[in-house]
């Protein structure tokens, strides 16, 4: 067993784990990060196919962690409008940043860029990244013992599981998950469009699922197209010319003709919720605790909200001269679990209503889109959706 007793061991060095480890280190904790995979290296010449619409509150966290200037300097794409419309007809739902009195609604940022930038900040802050996988957890006298796949044993006062959808931390604690497999996949790709993207996030609801077109800094658009599994596989394999024709039609030619640039990739869509985000001195964050439908692009934003709230709890504890006690973790977990559950079910309900051609769901969504266009209600809804209503720094 290593003699060193850590304040915190973060298992999983994706966006959520890396952001958490950095925030904990900045608050003076002795932290170590565990991940068997090397962090992806970002290069300007390669554009990651996986991009996120980072909301205002997630941006506030990244700014508080000190990584926002580096991200902005490397490559972020601010978006100033969002437009949602229904393939079955009705008026589009549109909001401009100006109407909310903000310079932009959020930023499109590549996955590899986020992980690479956070990793560089962790190196500077002196947080070691251990290239090993967690295999078991034991209760220690006044903390947790993490057993690693390479035989090492590490002791920590608190252990954080941010090790993704197939979390070993969650399994080691025997925490169950409720899973709903949507039998659909998200098709992601980069495309050129014949009309400029106008720094707008476009989302069209089709009977097969939503299609999102996100504006990239270099003028291309990144798509996330939710499709039933066989259809997703067909569209991944069809010749490029045919794919271009089908995607241009599916997008209603809102950006003119779309042309594939590079590969197409699929990722499975499901809802997966851990039954709890906390047990004793262990907490679960990000995809380890909740996987949601990507239709609102909220996957990573929810994970970063887990981090913001946890760091705020630690700040409150430190002001009183303490740390993250199991009871404080339990209160944090209750708040996050209920918000994450609500979000997961809300995205699912929207997906459900929008993928039904029956008259009642159609009437419902026309009513919803019309209501969202009404000035005060629309503004309130959009402020919430874009993460402005809860902007707070940890
Ligand atoms: C191809 C693809 C496309 C996606 N596109 C979108 C999208 O367009 N919009 C959206 O909102 N979401 C999208 N998602 C989901 C999004 O990527 C996740 O919500 C997000 O990455 C979650 O971050 P995380 O840090 O919680 O987990 P992850 O990114 O999964 O990171 C988990 C980390 O834990 C490590 N790990 C795993 N097991 C162990 C272990 N035993 N011990 C130690 N470390 C371990 C892994 O190596 C990894 O680095 C996509 C996912 C995929 C796979």
Main traits of this protein?
about 400 residues, alpha+beta, nine-stranded mixed sheet, 12 helices, about 40% helix, about 30% strand, globular, binds flavin-adenine dinucleotide
Give a nutshell description of this structure.
This protein is an alpha+beta fold and 394 residues long. Helix content is 38%, strand content 29%.
Number of helices: 12
CATH topological fold name of the domain at 5-76 and 109-179 and 270-352: FAD/NAD(P)-binding domain
What is the C-level CATH assignment of the domain at 5-76 and 109-179 and 270-352? Alpha Beta
Bound molecules: flavin-adenine dinucleotide
Write the layout of secondary structure elements.
Blueprint: E1 5-11, H1 15-26, E2 31-34, E3 51-54, H2 56-64, H3 68-74, E4 77-79, E5 81-86, E6 93-96, H4 97-100, E7 106-110, H5 111-125, E8 129-130, E9 134-139, E10 144-148, E11 153-161, H6 168-173, E12 177-193, E13 200-206, E14 209-215, E15 221-228, H7 229-237, H8 240-250, E16 258-260, E17 265-274, E18 278-279, E19 282-284, E20 290-291, H9 299-319, H10 326-354, H11 359-373, H12 375-385
Parallel strand pairs: 1-2, 1-11, 2-8, 5-13, 11-19
Antiparallel strand pairs: 3-7, 4-7, 5-6, 9-10, 10-11, 12-15, 12-16, 12-17, 13-14, 14-15, 17-20, 18-19
Helix pairs in contact: 1-5, 1-9, 9-10
